[in-house]
Amino acid sequence: MESTLKEMTNGDSVLDMDDKSGVGGGVEDMYGEDRVTEDQAVTPWTVSVASGYSLLRDPHHNKGLAFTEKERDALYLRGLLPPVVLSQELQERKLMHNLRQYKVPLQRYMAMMDLQERNERLFYKLLIDNVEELLPVVYTPTVGEACQKYGSIFRRPQGLYISLKEKGKILEVLKNWPEKSIQVIVVTDGERILGLGDLGCQGMGIPVGKLSLYTALGGVRPSVCLPVTIDVGTNNEKLLNDEFYIGLRQKRATGQEYTELLEEFMCAVKQNYGEKVLVQFEDFANHNAFELLAKYRTTHLVFNDDIQGTASVVLAGLVAALKLVGGTLADHTFLFLGAGEAGTGIAELIALEISKKTNAPLEEIRKKIWLVDSKGLIVSSRKDSLQHFKKPWAHEHEPVKELLDAVKAIKPTVLIGTSGVGRTFTKDVVEAMASFNEKPLILALSNPTSQAECTAEEAYTWSEGRAIFASGSPFDPVEQNGHIFVPGQANNAYIFPGFGLGLIMSGTIRVHDDLLLAACKYMED
């Protein structure tokens, strides 16, 4: 393995390098990034910068008008900048003022991406200092619209595009990326972007957005993050006929051709970056998501945010909600609308947590967790036709087609939506939940906001203000009868940046369920 971990610097192996962080994961400031803004005549990276003009076009090190007088002399910047020196704080105030002038969220997204491409440090300072305001801009819900229109707004590539054309050459493609010490990769094939469906190559907005949060919320250096899109085509006819579409113009590859490309990618990642590189699968379709996680979780450091990340956030939220409704998780009955990656992932983690606390068999606990898919309630009589990941949730019950009828039959205390279909928690459904629950727990988790099963206002209004509500994308506070209700947000951004940082710093090489449950415990606190 050591031979595959050779670095560009002096030919030394990563295995031989001093680990300044004191942990196996390695977060050493090997590029001098933490020292780049110190008051010094020559900054550590000037040896690799051809001239001051090139420096101003390097987003990793450009500071714009924040370069000091001394730096302008030392770095050949005289005359290339206006004479004024503006602090980063003043630059931040100016940019936030400009951003707030935009009325369309997509315009704000594009402005933020432009900033990231010219001044990375200022981008992250802006995001960190204004995370509540800017999180919905660089992440859900706005990133969904950005992906839909990615071909039209595309200006500069922000990650690696690996298509079927690169089959047999993926290791060479990875070596084309300028940064050699990668610790986190977020990869998608674009087949199931949020609740918007197959967006093909335009799904790149998701890995880019996720990794921005790894830095802003988790503190992971942007230089060790790599966004990747695997392009195997798209079945979206609208994109295939769009003259501005940036991906392969063909139907999606499946079967052996798809499997071989993903296998080559995973092997190349491990060969090029080592055993400890974290690969986060993002927005793969159900059939591929479960297979990829099952296949590679024993050989690679992999994490599926849609299955495991969503589950961790929701479990933590449910445990926190117990402070309001009382009892334990084992006292509740759960009904899911949606039986894909998120739905089954959440259900399984809930069952694991209850089993751990009660020592009851997992099979017995699953009987209090029910799922509804597009064909109705998942019951034993459907077992032969179910996909493998749905079969553990097929319980004895008569067939039920509609969600409302399932709610009335099961009488759940917790209703969770992961369907990707908007407005499916109707007035009748919410009123039914409120009729046999003093404080019904209603989680409309589908993203973006347009795909949420119901809005915060609907949940509070139809339950007469008694619902405990959370959503995947943010909703504004709701005023009702003199009371202000602040909706909760069960967003994966609360888990994956910190969880990923923990995996990197600990030097672990596999993700186990116990790690997810431990992360939940700290979130619920």
Automatic annotation (TrEMBL):
Every Malic enzyme NAD-binding domain range: 307-525
Cofactor: Mn(2+); Mg(2+)
Gene3D superfamilies: Malic enzyme, N-terminal domain, NAD(P)-binding Rossmann-like Domain
GO biological process, one term: malate metabolic process
Catalytic residues of the enzyme: Y139 (proton donor), K210 (proton acceptor)
Binding site for (S)-malate: R192, N447, N491
InterPro entries reported for this sequence: Aminoacid_DH-like_N_sf, Malic_enzyme_CS, Malic_N_dom, Malic_N_dom_sf, Malic_NAD-bd, Malic_OxRdtase, NAD(P)-bd_dom_sf
Cofactor note: Divalent metal cations. Prefers magnesium or manganese.
Protein's name in the database: Malic enzyme
Biological source species: Ilex paraguariensis
